[in-house]
Amino acid sequence: MKYVYTPGRLKVKIPNKIVYGGMEFKVEFEDHPVIGGESVWGHWDYPNQRIVLASQLAEPAILATLFHEMAHIIMEMAGFSGLSEKEEWLADIFGYGFFQMMIQNQELCADGTREDT
Ligand SMILES: [Zn+2]
What we know:
Blueprint: E1 2-5, E2 11-14, E3 17-20, E4 23-30, E5 34-35, E6 38-39, E7 42-45, E8 50-54, H1 59-77, H2 87-104
Parallel strand pairs: 4-8
Antiparallel strand pairs: 1-2, 3-4, 5-6, 7-8
Bound molecules: zinc ion.
């Protein structure tokens, strides 16, 4: 389990796995991952059910990249993956968008017990 700090010092846990659509994706770190001969910040690997993040990324970028890869998984599960050359663009919009939403609304990630009032 790894923790990262966002701008504003929000402490966020990077889980060892992401569960979505009845599947578990291991979250792993690699030094300088490469896809198709190109250095990448991260990638997701559907057949092996893993999300790979570049270990050299600064902490906010680790989290933004994780959200980007989760957006890819959501599109894949919805049958959208590969249907549009705009997939990278959409992963950036929704991945970075939710990353920003979390930073600017830190109560979304409050660490504590639920209080029913
Ligand atoms: Zn991508």
